[in-house]
């Protein structure tokens, strides 16, 4: 068995960044809407059940404003969920413009993501990007070729340090082909419930039922509202039939109009006048 990784010097005394058992959450370096780093995952996510991972870019944002409004309403309404923005932009200012006045969390930008441009050069001409806390972030290529693996569906020993995932690596785990791309992750079962989720699933008409399904780990609970909507026409027909039967039984044959209607229809079809 391989020995556990040692955290970098900058992380000594900051085990709160990774000391949760969930295999995905402990590999994310997250920031609050204010830009403040989340340094105690266990405390911040104690009451969370669902993560909505949204991989997006500034390009085409103008066409997504309705979706962004729906996602903002979702984040404000469902306190047991967290929306995490995964920027695929190469300009560090781009996600700041996207996230302005939005209550979403975000992955840290400085992670040397595979799709990120080189930000700095040292005096010897070797190009390097500033990396948050000096950590060695897992890159997309490592996930794609299987050099680095994340086993979902199980808990990990939370006190062991693990390499964090870059934004690019997370998009691979989300099976992102283009943006916007949304994935639903269930914290209690440590699994992705759905990937490439349609943005229309967050519209006001659909979001309640969908979130109920996501909170239940992908299994929709049976609600009276859903049963009624599915059975409303048979129920209405049954109620009308009962009313008709009672009217005939207690009101007399003058209320038994169905035979007369049927006779009238047969006369018209047969082309003959009533006797």
Comma- or semicolon-separated keywords:
alpha/beta; Glutaredoxin; six-stranded mixed beta sheet; 8 helices; elongated
Describe the structure.
This protein folds into 2 domains: 9-220, Glutaredoxin; 225-270, no CATH class. The strands form 2 sheets. The chain has a 6-stranded mixed sheet with strand order 1-4-3-2-7-8, sandwiched between helices. Strands 5-6 form a two-stranded antiparallel ribbon. The protein has 275 residues and is of the alpha/beta class. The protein is built from 8 helices and 8 strands, in the order βαβαβαβββααββααα. The model is unreliable at 116-128 (pLDDT under 50). Strand 3 (81-87), helix 3 (93-99) and strand 4 form a beta-alpha-beta unit. The protein is elongated, with a radius of gyration of 29 Å.
Describe the structure in brief.
The chain has 275 residues and is of the alpha/beta class. It has eight helices and eight strands; from the N terminus they run E-H-E-H-E-H-E-E-E-H-H-E-E-H-H-H.
């Amino acid at each position: 068995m391989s020995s556990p990784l040692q955290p970098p010097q900058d992380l000594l005394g900051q085990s709160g960044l990774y000391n949760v058992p969930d295999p995905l959450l402990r590999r994310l370096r997250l920031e609050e809407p204010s830009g403040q780093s989340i340094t105690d995952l266990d405390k911040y996510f104690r009451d969370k059940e669902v993560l909505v991972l949204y991989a997006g870019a500034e390009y085409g944002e103008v066409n997504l404003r309705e979706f962004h409004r729906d996602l903002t309403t979702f984040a404000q309404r469902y306190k047991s969920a967290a929306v995490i923005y995964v920027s695929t932009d190469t300009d560090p200012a781009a996600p700041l413009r996207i996230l302005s006045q939005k209550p979403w969390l975000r992955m840290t930008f400085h992670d040397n993501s595979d799709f990120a441009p080189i930000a700095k050069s040292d005096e010897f001409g070797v190009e390097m990007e500033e990396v948050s806390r000096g950590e060695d972030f897992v890159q997309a290529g490592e996930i794609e070729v299987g050099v680095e693996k994340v086993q979902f569906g199980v808990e990990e020993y939370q006190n062991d340090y693990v390499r964090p995932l870059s934004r690019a690596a997370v998009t691979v785990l989300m099976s992102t082909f283009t943006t916007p791309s949304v994935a639903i992750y269930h914290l209690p079962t440590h699994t992705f419930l759905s990937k490439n989720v349609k943005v229309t699933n967050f519209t006001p008409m659909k979001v309640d039922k969908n979130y109920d399904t996501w909170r239940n780990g992908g299994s929709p609970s049976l609600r009276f509202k859903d049963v009624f909507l599915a059975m409303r026409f048979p129920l209405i027909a049954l109620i009308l039939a009962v009313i008709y039967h009672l009217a005939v039984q207690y009101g007399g044959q003058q209320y038994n109009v169905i035979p007369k209607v049927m006779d009238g229809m047969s006369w018209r079809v047969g082309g003959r006048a009533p006797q």
